[in-house]
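Recall the central idea of this unit: under ordinary conditions, the amino acid sequence of a chain determines the structure it adopts. In this exercise we apply that idea directly, starting from the sequence alone.
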Amino acid sequence: MLKGIDHRLNAEVLHTLRAMGHGDTLVIADTNFPSDSIARSTVVGSLLRMENLSCADAVQAVLSVLPLDTFVADFAGRMEVVGDPDQVPVVQAEVQAQIDRAEGRPRPMIGIERFAFYDEARKAYAVIQTGERRFYGCFIFRKGVIPPEA
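Accordingly, the structure predicted from this sequence is:
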C-alpha cells in the first residue's frame, strides 16, 4: 500500500501508466472484449488486469494518476453500439462521468465503430481487463502531459 496512490491500482498497472508517454493509448475493457489476444499486439505485449472492478471504478483509479491529452479530440473513445452508434449505454455514461470529474468539466468521448476499435486497440500501449460484465464497457484513453510547476 502506498500513501496517496489509489489502492485499486496494482503494481503492474502503475508501472505501465508511468512508462507510457504523451500520446500513448490505453485500453480499459470489459470481460467480453478479446483482451488477451489484442494485448499480445500492444507495446506491453501481455494483458493487465483489474478484475474485481467495474469499468467506472477502474477508470476512476487510472485517471487519479493519468493525465488525459488536451491537444486532441480523440483523448478518449468508446466502442459504439453495433447498429445504434449514438446510443450511450449506462456503463459508458458512468465512465463519461468519471472523465468529466477528472477533467473538471464536460469532455465527451468520441465513438469508435466496433472493428475500428479493435484495430486501434491493437496499436495501444497496453490493455487492462476489468471485471465489468455489462456490454460495451470498452474504452481507449490517450495519455497527456503534466505541466511544469509555475
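The chain has a mean pLDDT of 97.
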